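Question: Send over one sample?
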Amino acid sequence: MAGQVLARLPAGEGWLQFNAEWNLARAHWLNGELGEALSRLAAARPAGEAMALAACWDHGLVLRAQGRLRAALAGYQQALAADTPTEGPAPAALGLMYVGVAAILYEQDDLAGALERATEGVAACRQFARGFSITSARRLAEALVVLASVRLALGDLAAASAAVSEAGEAGPSPDVVDLFNPAGAQRVRLLLAQGQVAEAAAWAAARGLDPGDQPSYPREREYLLLARLLTAQGQPDRALPLLERLQAAAAAQARTGSLIEIGAVTAAARAACGQEAGAVAALAGALELACPEGYLRVFADEGPPLAAVLDRLIAAQRSGRMPPAPGVPLAYLRRLQAAYRPGETRAVPPQVIPAAAVAAPPLAEPLTDRELQVLALLAAGISNQQIARELVVALETVKKHVSHILGKLGAANRTQAVARARALGLLE
């Protein structure tokens, strides 16, 4: 429908064109087609500062879904560096930029910086949400969820609960798809953190979640909570097949952000099953994807069970018995260990580890220009069929290029190839 609207719009209808492009972007996003969503968001021409900042927020969310924390942070910081609007709805949208920065700082385990930015952003969003549109209220809910995450990591359960409650009141109906409505999921994370397993189970039953389901991307967050719940209930064996399906779907669409979180939850579930080697392997795979962008909290938030797996991985790496996480520096693993102890002073200031700092070995054979073209399209999450259409070549030719890329990068799949290419500086 949005595509038909775009095709029929006369020149000069900037507001309608922006909304049609934005709706198309969200449709691709809901389908897990992150590269296409980014393209549509980039094509949208906002009619006004507030729209531009709101689009920047969504753009950052999609980048984060791709596992690109640095690019998302750069976008938020660029928006904040621009002249601050003085009237209209822009203050709330600018508040979202502070919240976006807070979300990245939180993931990098800079909890003090995240709290400062999130508090500032929530104050701006809260001020504008009073008496304005449903969209503004939803943005306030999204901002409060980030604040609640920071408060929970700092151990302030009362403040985290208050933020979650306000987010639930401000946000859209619970019927709105989970991808665009994170307040409910954050409430369940809080329940699990407090050991309120029965309440979390009641939520899962009310949402109709079953470990035998084939989960869609828009409900991925809910099913990851179900996997955590099953593990907390002493049934991690029921969680593992569900996690395998989630992993396969995310890998097929090169959704690196999803793969990192799924890997963390899988490692905890395998550890609960007594599968020590499988737990270490799952964690190592997730860390390889996470290290270039400086992810920490996605692992630390899984709590002591995953900390024990991390300790085993570090012991194996130190002993030299095996390299369970090639390309992951020991310094990064130590920072992750520190993230499990929020009261400690960090020996290394929290920051994104530059790609150049990741111990990725140089390529024995460089990629050709055409392979670099294909690699860039892989990084955008585009399928082989779409790459063939884009480059006007046969599908079998694309498959050969992809095979050569995987071989040269020493990667088992597209997602690993993109992560290693970024670590080598082959991608922006």
